[in-house]
Amino acid sequence: MLASQLPKEEVRGGYPRRFAVAIKRGVKPTTVVNLGITAEIPYTGDILNTQDMVRAASNKKKARATFVKDKVPAPALYLTPGAVSESDLPVIGRTSYHKGGEGFWFCKTLAAVRRAAKAGATHFLEFIPDTREYRVHTFIKRKHRKPDKRKPESYVSIKISEKTWQGKGRPNPDEPQKNHGFGWVFLGPNKRRKEELDVVRYAAKQAIASLGMDFGAVDVMYRVRTKRPFVLEVNSTPSLSDEQADTCEVYAGRIVKTIKED
After folding, report:
1. Rounded CA gap, 135 and 162, in Å?
2. Is the entire prediction scored with pTM above 0.70?
């Protein structure tokens, strides 16, 4: 939860409880920037990423169903274990709410699909092999904040990173997850073609527009062989705490630019 008070152009951070105390003490922020909070807060003013926007991204099953409806490029979605056929295998089982590598099942057989469903998987995704994975931080343009129906052109990409192997030796070819715990970290794209990055950025904008959010960190896979992007999910709580990265500064600059009065 961030609160900004203009014209000082000051951006302050704080947890919801601390924010509520500040409001009770008479603090009157010009704008509140909501970092992943769905609970109600004692504030009725301007909010970047309202609670409804965060909810739209937090329920991954519903968000992915929205991607299908709006034709956002994404892995094929199976809403029930019975929807998965032998020819669809392998698939990835996921829970509706998850973060990082939680709620993840790599299913190579229909029996594994059924076991994943019993263990908590609420939906399944097509497994896309041989991909690069990007995270695209995407933000609404100030002049497009008001329109109800947003388009990809309503957004700007403020930062893009690529998952890069930094572990010991070589990555395990049988491990489909590219998570930090397995040795993968987000770094700047290394000598990637502009055309590839443009395709990835546009897919991220499609995803954000589909959910109607003000900003988010969009995870996008790119398959070099087919030159196709696949949106995985939108994160409403971008990681801003990495002291080795400039993500926090990039967001702070964009926030001020978005809410600054002419």
Report:
1. 6
2. yes
Q: How many CA atoms lie within 13 A of 86 on its CB side?
A: 0
Q: What's the CA gap between 70 and 85, in Å, rounded?
A: 24
Q: How far apart are CA 169 and CA 107, in angstroms?
A: 26
Question: Which region holds residue 71: left if phi is over 0, alpha if psi is between -120 and 50, else beta?
Answer: left
d(CA 22, CA 227): 49
Q: Which CATH class, in words, describes the domain spanning 51-71+129-259?
A: alpha beta
Residue 201 tokens, joined: 């950025």
Q: Which of 137, 104, 132 is nearest to 236 (CA)?
A: 137
- The residue extents of the domains of the chain are 51-71+129-259, 77-126
Six-digit token string for 114 = 């059924």
**1 pLDDT band (50/70/90 cuts)?**
low
In the numeric block, which tokens belong to residue 182? 């397995």
